[in-house]
Specification:
308 residues, 6-stranded parallel β-sheet, alpha/beta, Rossmann fold, 37% helix, globular, 20% strand
């Protein structure tokens, strides 16, 4: 069996999908038989480094492979067929806009929030997901849903036949089991996930705002995940009822996977709002008024008063 997995996320700044694809490819190759071949599109068979912040390849190699993807999307299935060669099954990611004509087509649906709640996505993302649904998901020979809820959403919203979509829960990489606990000075409450409106960080901050002050004093609130600068600014400016003095810890660069694993393995609860800053200097100037900054553990801690 010759299977090609779309691994375009390896070329981009990405969190969940990149990690999902990277570990899935590794596992499929370990499980493959002697007559099986697991390939990665576009020309990513040698992908061996997981870096959420950067492309896995050099700049020239990244540009050339993104050019292949662009050619497929612009010029059509004939280009994709040529790149896939004798592939029997092609698993498309959400940056692919064309279906192959010779290989069987599959895809993974992580969620359909862009269709269910477009108001929490940018217009570009909502339109892109709609195109992916029409050109790939509705035409696929088989689909994977990462949860039963997502499977039911696909059946209800996309008209996918129940027998064409199967729930397969995401696995947990070995790294999570081998990570060393990373103790911090205070207990914390940890939230892990991309900082975007659809993740409902606003509701988390509101809920944290009504926690009794003595508990907020004892615990920190920590959020780790990739985010856009706009998302961070919204989080920092978000009004939270009852919050007096709060620290927002904005991590510069990647919140490394080992660091997150150690947080998860730490037996205590803890919390400081730790997020990544992609454009740290610009945002820091925007929110610097009446704030104090200090360097703590490789992060920038932004401290400010919030008025109920």
């Amino acid at each position: 069996m010759r299977i090609t997995i779309d691994a375009t996320s390896a070329l981009l700044r990405s969190a969940g999908v990149k990690g999902y694809t990277y570990h899935w490819l590794k596992h499929l190759r370990r499980q493959a038989g002697t007559d099986d071949e697991i390939r990665a599109f576009p020309m990513l068979n040698d992908w061996d480094v997981l870096d959420h912040e950067h492309s896995a390849l050099s700049m020239p190699a990244t540009v050339s492979r993104l050019a292949v993807l662009h050619s497929v999307n612009v010029f059509g299935s004939s280009i994709l067929d040529r790149v896939l060669r004798d592939t029997q099954i092609f698993h498309a990611g959400n940056l692919v806009r064309r279906a192959p004509t010779r290989a069987r087509l599959t895809a993974t649906i992580h969620d359909l929030t862009a269709l269910i709640m477009p108001e929490v996505h940018t217009k570009a993302i909502a339109e892109a997901d709609d195109t992916f649904a029409e050109r790939i998901l509705k035409r696929a020979d088989g689909l994977i849903a990462v949860s039963e809820n997502t499977r039911q959403d696909a059946i209800r919203m996309l008209g996918v036949r129940p027998e064409r979509i199967r729930t397969i829960y995401s696995g947990v990489p070995e790294d999570y089991f081998d990570a060393t606990p990373h103790p911090r000075n205070k207990p914390y409450v940890l939230c892990v996930g991309t900082v975007e409106p659809r993740k409902n960080l606003d509701a988390l901050l509101d809920a944290w705002g009504v926690v009794p002050p003595d508990l907020r004093e004892h615990f920190d609130l920590l959020v780790a995940g990739l985010f856009t600068g706009v998302a961070l600014l919204a989080a920092v400016r978000q009004p939270a009822v009852g919050v007096g003095h709060e620290q927002v810890c904005a991590r510069i660069g990647e919140v490394g996977v080992q660091r997150v694993h150690r947080f998860i393995r730490t037996p205590r609860l803890e919390a400081k709002l730790v997020v990544q800053l992609r454009e740290a200097d610009v945002l820091r100037r925007e929110i610097a008024i009446q704030q104090q900054t200090a360097s703590i553990d490789g992060a920038v801690v932004i401290q400010r008063d919030r008025v109920a």
